[in-house]
Design goal:
heterodimer; A: alpha/beta; Flavocytochrome C3, Chain A, domain 1; Methane Monooxygenase Hydroxylase, Chain G, domain 1; seven-stranded mixed sheet; five-stranded mixed sheet; 19 helices; 22 strands; about 20% strand; B: alpha+beta; Ubiquitin-like (UB roll); Fumarate Reductase Iron-sulfur Protein, Chain B, domain 2; two-stranded antiparallel sheet; 10 helices; binds flavin-adenine dinucleotide
């Protein structure tokens, strides 16, 4: 079959996508929900989340506290209305998953257990051993099998979002977009005006046959996850190439706060495989080569349980001061959990042990684990409001690919799994509502044919470069110039290098010319997307001449609320170049203060 | 870091080619490289058309299961140094018992359908509202799910199973473990368990298992599907006996 019609198309089968699908399917069993994913849903990267999921579950905790921790953690860049909504919904989602059978770990008395996490002022992170994401994803997937109105297209790679601008012909898209460009005076409601394009579906490639299909949908949800793969050293899976953000951008949607990239303090050298923050939540120490718990020097009140941006920077300072260890894959510090004892390690942190043994050759019961800061999470993404709506009609986004923003300049660990559920569900419900009044517009045959031609051209192209060499180069540039510490000069160099490397795309010859399951071709398409993400990160980082959260500028070392208490938005302008704008942060009751712990 | 050189024989197949063939690569590796690292190197540097699945590279997503030297394994967790035998090439083939789509990629859709047929979700007897919070579950009850709930659906057990090789109707190890996982859940209602047992004790069901236990020895997550199958057989016999008795009693 080469075309599908559906009420709701959901792109992405991770935590956010599956939750959206179930929410919509439950809300209205008459709705058709199509879940499209480039990998089988259980292969999505949510599966690797380890430490836990945050929500106010115990009596001595409060919504107020969770809001404040999140907002302070975000370095006051989170939108506070979104945070309040999120904090209110998160416990409900955790309970909902429990009702569906997700096996959260338990306290002695049979209640759902909570553990401490970085930047959280009290224990509020629910977990399932240290395989929280795995249990969550599989529980959601298994539950999704109950609903006959959820249909799946597994191993379908979405290559393009289609808008009604694309399908009507006549004026060029960019001219239309120029008219639609919001001027500064417009309010948000006006921005989604009659002239903004409407997303009417997408084009996807059935990997198992190589065939392209068109999918017409009344509403579309992007749940495509993060973009850690634009760096060379990351905890992220190979599939995390920021596709959804790039698809949205190319369709004319706004991306937001792309400069904020989280470095997790504890990745294993060489692979970047994550050792969960849960290891410190359970009492683990960070040690330098003198055997000192060096966080004493930087954050004595929080020690190892400070927010990630601060801990990662502290590790880098230790290394710079010569107090790190050096190994074949760079300098590192130690994460020591030996004092927790074998029993606790096996019960609470089995995966930490498994990962250390398998990927670092270290048994944490007897030895400290070598760790270094590693790219982990994209705070930025497709700009959405509290209802998961993007700046384009018909297009929603949720999970790591979206930026509401509850994470601002720095996400607190364990907030993002909760974010996937809360805003996934929200997106599903909003779409169900919108489907009542919106009509299906068909993706035209011409649109499909154009995309077929583009792919055919790629397969035939000859050139001297390979996907792997250009991808590696892109990752190295980002690692070097858009890392933990940035400055104007480095960012300019990085941007110029990325823009000139981008021209090499045309010289890439694919190593596989077959139609069937062509992972070179998907690798190429992902690489195109990665260029959008890289450019957006660099341009946004250049524009933010201050240090806030994960974004540290060595040439502007302080936070500067006067000039930079705003979100950075990027949009493709009429000349198909990236343009930046600034949008206000929503502040409800928590006035920005110095971020002290 | 020290490197050794090995010859890797990879089974290739790409329709409409009539039959598979082995392609040989010679390449160096260090002690910290996995089989997946080697395959990635081949794809990046030698032959971009080599096709395999992989994603998390940390043993959680289940994408990269293949047959290495005759054994089904997760290639991201299998170190080259552990499988390279002196003077012998390393043999990399797709998982067995599945139709091959291309090179090292097999069609696993059938197992996902089998999993669906086990109704892998909890239907509670009494339903609480979300506002009323969570249910209780003791550590002991939670422990009952410990093994079966670890399944990552990597399909290694199906590749190891001698029965699934010729009997595609057999429910097979992972789907059986999934059924057992939900049967054992302290929250599951008797009714839903009953419904599940009806499917499982159907003609295809669990009966075909010959208890060789290959699935459990191959499982990278120690799920022990063989034990699950055994339990399901016992529970299944009881279930059938009960259903028959019910029918006799209910006869007018
Ligand atoms: C190692 C690790 C540990 C983590 N631990 C925690 C933790 O303990 N707590 C916490 O809160 N957060 C944690 N996080 C973060 C959290 O796991 C992620 O933010 C979250 O799981 C993202 O879920 P998602 O649904 O947005 O995307 P994903 O789970 O990444 O799913 C993306 C989906 O989109 C699909 N997709 C992408 N592109 C395309 C395309 N072009 N066409 C079709 N389909 C496409 C993919 O197939 C996939 O199904 C961790 C992250 C990592 C990397």
């Amino acid at each position: 079959m080469s075309s599908f019609n559906t009420d709701i198309a959901i792109i992405g089968g991770g935590g956010a996508g599956l939750r959206a699908a179930i929410a919509a399917a439950e809300e209205n069993p008459e709705l058709s929900v199509l879940l499209i994913s480039k990998v089988y849903p259980v292969r999505s990267h949510t599966v690797s989340a380890e430490g836990g999921i945050a929500g106010v579950m115990s009596e001595d905790d409060s919504h107020e506290k969770h809001c404040f921790d999140t907002i302070r953690g975000s370095d006051y860049l989170a939108d506070q209305d979104a945070v309040e909504f999120f904090v209110n919904e998160a416990p409900k989602e955790i309970i909902q998953l429990e009702h569906w059978g997700c096996p959260w770990s338990r306290e002695e008395n049979g209640d759902v257990a909570v553990r401490a996490f970085g930047g959280m002022s009290t224990k509020r992170t629910v977990y399932a051993a240290d395989k929280t994401g795995f249990y969550m994803l599989h529980s959601l997937f298994e539950r999704s099998l109950k609903y006959p109105n959820i249909k799946r297209l597994d191993e379908y790679f979405v290559t393009k979002l289609v808008t009604d601008f694309d399908s009507t012909g006549g004026e060029t898209n960019n001219e239309k977009r120029a008219e639609a460009m919001p001027s500064e005076k417009h309010t948000e409601a006006e921005n989604i005006s009659a002239k903004t394009p409407r997303v009417i579906g997408c084009i996807a490639m059935n990997l198992q046959t190589g065939e392209l299909v068109s999918i017409s949908a009344k509403t579309t949800i992007l749940a495509t996850g993060g973009a850690g793969k634009v760096y060379s050293f990351t905890t992220n899976a190979l599939i995390k190439t920021g596709d959804g953000m790039a698809l949205a951008y190319k369709a004319g949607a706004e991306l937001k706060d792309m400069e904020f990239v989280q470095f997790h303090p504890t990745g294993l050298p060489r692979t970047g495989i994550l050792i969960t923050e849960g290891a410190r939540g359970e009492g683990g120490y960070l040690l330098n080569n003198l055997g000192e718990r060096f966080m004493e020097r930087y954050l004595p009140n929080k020690m190892e349980l400070g927010p990630r941006d601060i801990i990662s920077r502290s590790i880098m300072s230790e290394i710079k001061a010569g107090r790190g260890f050096s190994g074949p894959y760079g300098e590192y510090v130690h994460l020591d959990i030996r004092h927790l004892g074998e029993e606790k390690i096996n019960e609470k942190l089995p995966l930490v042990r498994e990962m250390s043994l398998d990927f670092a050759g270290v048994d944490p019961i007897n030895e400290p684990i070598p760790v270094m800061p590693v790219v982990h999470y994209s705070m930025g993404g497709v700009a959405t409001n509290v209802n998961a709506k993007s700046s384009l009609k018909g297009l929603f986004a949720a999970g790591e690919t979206a930026c509401v923003s509850i994470n601002g300049a720095n996400r607190l660990g364990s907030n993002s799994l909760a974010e996937c559920l809360v805003f996934g569900a929200r997106a599903g419900l909003e779409c169900a509502k919108e489907c009542k009044s919106s009509k299906l517009i068909h993706v035209s045959a011409r649109e499909l044919a154009d995309e077929e031609n583009r792919i055919a051209e790629l397969l035939q192209r000859t050139g001297s470069k390979t996907v792997a060499t250009v991808k590696t180069k892109l990752q190295e540039i980002m690692q070097k110039h858009a890392g933990i510490e940035r400055d104007h000069e480095g960012l300019v160099i990085g941007l110029n290098q990325i823009l000139s490397l981008k021209r090499e795309l045309k010289n890439i010859e694919l190593g596989d010319k077959a139609k069937l399951f062509n992972t070179e071709l998907t690798g190429y398409l992902e690489l195109e997307n990665m260029f959008v993400i890289a450019e957006a990160i660099l341009r946004s980082a250049l524009d933010r001449k201050e240090s806030r959260g994960s974004h540290t500028r060595s040439d502007f070392t302080e936070r500067n609320d006067e000039e930079f208490l705003h979100h950075t938005h990027v949009l493709q302008d009429q000349k198909a170049t990236m343009s930046l704008s600034r949008k206000p942060v929503t502040i409800t009751k928590w006035k920005p203060q110095p971020r002290v712990y | 870091m020290e490197t050794t050189t090995t010859r890797v024989l990879v089974k290739r197949y790409s329709p409409p080619q009539p039959s598979p063939y082995f392609q040989s690569f010679e390449l160096p590796f260090s002690n910290d490289m996995t089989v997946l690292d080697l395959l990635t190197k081949i794809k990046e540097n030698e032959d971009g058309s080599l096709t395999f699945r992989s994603s998390c590279r940390m043993g959680m997503c289940g994408s990269c299961a293949m047959t290495v030297n005759g054994k089904p394994v997760l290639t991201c967790q299998t170190y080259a140094k552990d499988v390279v035998k002196e003077n012998k090439p390393m043999l990399v083939e797709p998982l067995r018992n599945f139709p091959v789509i291309k090179d090292l990629i097999v069609d696993i859709g059938d197992v996902f359908e089998k999993m669906r047929s086990t109704m892998p979700y909890v239907e509670r007897m009494e339903k609480k509202a979300i506002a009323d919070g969570t249910y209780k579950q003791s550590s002991k009850e939670r422990k009952k799910l410990e093994k079966t709930s670890q399944c990552i659906k990597c399909m290694i057990c199906y590749s190891a199973c001698p029965v699934y090789g010729y009997e595609k109707d057999f429910i097979g190890p992972a789907a059986a473990a999934l059924a057992e996982r939900y049967n054992q859940d302290s929250h599951e209602s008797a009714e839903h368990k009953n419904e599940r047992m009806n499917t499982i004790t159907s003609e295809k069901g669990v009966w075909k298992c010959s208890f060789v236990g290959e699935c459990s020895s191959a499982c990278p997550k120690r799920v022990d599907p063989a034990q699950a199958l055994q339990r399901l057989k016992i529970m299944g016999s009881l279930h059938i006996a009960k259903e028959v008795t019910k029918k006799i009693i209910n006869k007018p």
